[in-house]
Amino acid sequence: MPFDNRGLATLGNPKTPLPFHRDGLIAIDIPQTRAIVRVTQYGWQRAMDDLDRRILAALQKNNRLSFAELAEATGSSAASCMRRVNKLRSDGVIVADISLVDPKALGKSLTVVVTVELDRERLDLVDDFKRAMRAAKEVTQCYMVTGDADFVLIVAVKDVEAFDIFVRTKLYTNPNVRKFQSMIALDRVKFEPRVIV
């Protein structure tokens, strides 16, 4: 994406700059086409339109739909849906196609929310903790957060004994963990992995 000396985006003709805000949206005119483009630090790409959003909504409900079924659900054609889905995957919008499994079916009947406060917030030590949590099979989700705690973990284990083993091997043994608090989930009121589109 070329820019003029005022920092405005231009496309083709530098005499017709296109004002935009970085990481914002701009409208560009290409012969016989009106396109919305998202400008990011990685360059520019077409922003999602209504069909993309309908496709994502349908696939988040059931990602086993055939392209013909997806076309019927979104009011498009199978060929168009196939192109859109492949593009959404290559752009990193769709990051995985997975099956959600009930933890209880695999004997993971205990869910624990754990807040962790680190002793020192040196970048290398923070990265070490992130790597450790990514490698810990008991940790299903890990978030670095603002506030009193530095991290929030979602831990899925068989029982209290298994959680005690996790604490002893993953938290007590980490010299940079200042303190942690654990909260056992009594009831999963809502679990929604879908992103609103």
Mind sketching the topology for me?
Blueprint: E1 25-30, E2 33-40, E3 43-46, H1 50-61, H2 67-74, H3 78-90, E4 110-118, H4 123-135, E5 139-144, E6 151-157, H5 160-171, E7 177-184
Antiparallel strand pairs: 1-2, 2-3, 4-6, 4-7, 5-6
Sheet with the most strands, sense and barrel status: 4 strands, antiparallel
- Low-confidence spans: 3-23, 27-37
Mean pLDDT: 83
Number of strands: 7
**Proportion of residues in extended strands:** 15-25%
Largest sheet, order of strands side by side?
5-6-4-7
Protein model, in words:
The protein has a four-stranded antiparallel beta sheet with strand order 5-6-4-7. The protein has a three-stranded antiparallel beta sheet with strand order 1-2-3, with no helix packed on it. A hairpin with a 6-residue loop joins strand 5 and strand 6 (151-157). It has helices at 50-61, 67-74, 78-90, 123-135, 160-171; strands spanning 25-30, 33-40, 43-46, 110-118, 139-144, 151-157, 177-184. The chain has 197 residues and is of the alpha+beta class. The chain is 29% helix and 24% strand. Helix 1 (50-61) crosses helix 2 (67-74).
Using brief descriptors, characterize the structure shown:
disordered N terminus, 5 helices, 197 residues, four-stranded antiparallel β-sheet, alpha+beta, 7 strands
